[in-house]
Design brief:
This protein is an alpha+beta fold and about 350 residues long. The protein has 2 domains: about 5-90; about 110-340, Bira Bifunctional Protein, Domain 2 (BirA Bifunctional Protein, domain 2, 2-Layer Sandwich), CATH 3.30.930.10. The protein is about 40% helix and about 20% strand. The chain has 11 helices and 10 strands. Strands 1, 4, 5, 6, 7, 8, 9 and 10 form an 8-stranded mixed sheet that branches. Strand 7 (about 255-270) and strand 8 form a beta hairpin. It is elongated. The termini are far apart. The chain binds 3,4-dihydroxyphenylalanine. 3,4-dihydroxyphenylalanine binds near residues 288, 289 and 312. 3,4-dihydroxyphenylalanine (DAH) binds next to strand 9 and strand 10.
Length: about 350
């Protein structure tokens, strides 16, 4: 019988030399397979005298374990090398510009978000973002909507399962929650816009459970309703790309603003299409007002020193209006033919200098 030490060093040598998984498997079969060299030696134990077997058997068992372990270890190393080679060969540089011959398009929502943020950035606003999953305080209480306030019913809120302490998180029902984060965490003055996803349990031709809003907030010592009107006027002019957009402010109510208003713009509806800036119809596009001093206080801002205004608007609907898209639900269908028709070429980034939409 071959000497165990020699066999051990031969096998470990073969394992060490195996540079791919197939070779390693062949070594495993030749050592530990049914007719493998270690297995045959184990079988030989039966013919040995008991005294001899007592000495050899533990050595063989040790050899078997050691060879098995060495193969497993080598296998893990080779698998890792295979994975690394694959990752290297399949690497995609996502920072490369898109190739124009490909059919990928920018979704109209993304386009409109880019357009809106471009307009407000030009007016000196910065972009703020917050979490989609909120607590009750940020989505409601801090915005002057305490528990039992009727405005809560109107929000058709999606709640997460109750936590051990009895509280329940929720999917934010409006981007106004980000006003709260900003006022709590950043020293005033504030001049932010907040684009983002919002959620309400509502679904029909003009409502989807997930939709997009953009919120604006200005807080300083002197800003007033006149500034709010000026900012929104400039926004409408730039966004709808018409020089004269007639706006109308109607008194309204929101718990977080006082006074509150809704803003309409003059338009005409002609079939599917809508013309902005002329005609006898009015279309509501946003809610706004002076930030309620109670909200300032709840967010830790001294309302005897600071004041300001806010507004909130649905992005999906104004995207439909601007680009003549008839059905809201198609926004979320991921239908490539639809996207090819209504989408935007990736390199046509909207800028005020170059034109928002061409
Ligand atoms: N959060 C309101 C909504 O989702 C929209 C809104 C109205 C936001 C007035 C505001 C505002 O900041 O001042 O219906």
């Amino acid at each position: 019988m071959q000497d165990i030490e020699t066999l051990e060093s031969e096998l470990l040598g073969e394992i060490g030399n195996a540079t791919d998984l197939d070779t390693l498997e062949a070594v495993r079969i030749s050592a530990l397979g049914k007719k493998g060299r270690v297995s045959l030696m184990m079988r030989g134990l039966g013919q040995m005298a008991p005294e001899e077997r007592q000495v050899v058997a533990p050595k063989l068992n040790k050899l078997k374990t050691m060879v098995g372990d060495a193969i497993e270890q080598a296998k893990a190393g080779l698998n890792k090398a295979v994975l690394e080679a694959r990752l290297a060969s399949e690497r995609v540089d996502i920072t490369l510009p898109p190739r124009p011959e490909l059919e990928g398009r920018i979704h109209p929502i993304s386009q409109v978000m880019d357009e809106i943020t471009e307009i407000f950035a030009d007016m000196g606003f910065t972009i703020a973002e917050g979490p989609d999953i909120e607590d009750d305080f940020h989505n409601f209480t801090a915005l002057n909507i305490p528990p039992e306030h009727p405005a809560r019913q109107m929000h058709d809120t999606f709640y997460l399962p109750q936590k051990e302490d009895g509280s329940r998180q929720l999917l934010r029902t409006h981007t106004s929650s980000v006003q709260v984060h900003t006022m709590q965490n950043v020293e005033p003055p504030h001049r932010i816009v907040v684009p983002g996803r919002t959620y309400r349990s509502d679904s029909d031709q003009t409502h989807t459970p997930m939709f997009n809003q953009i919120e604006g907030l200005v807080i300083d010592k002197t800003s007033h309703m006149g500034h709010l009107k000026g900012v929104l006027q400039e926004f409408c002019r730039a966004f709808f790309e018409v020089d004269n957009v007639e706006m109308r402010f109607r008194p309204s109510y929101f718990p977080f603003t006082e006074p509150s208003a809704e803003m309409d713009i003059r338009c005409t509806f002609a079939g599917d299409h809508i013309k902005i800036g002329e005609g006898d119809d009015w279309m509501e596009i946003l809610g706004c007002g002076m930030v309620n001093p109670k909200v300032l206080e709840l967010c830790g801002v001294d309302s005897s020193v600071y004041q300001g205004f806010a507004w909130g608007m649905g992005i999906d609907r104004i995207a439909m209006l601007k680009y003549g898209i008839p059905d809201l639900r198609a926004f979320f269908d991921s239908d490539l033919r639809w996207l090819k028709h209504y989408g935007f070429v990736p390199l046509d980034v909207p800028t005020l200098g170059g034109g928002l939409s061409r």
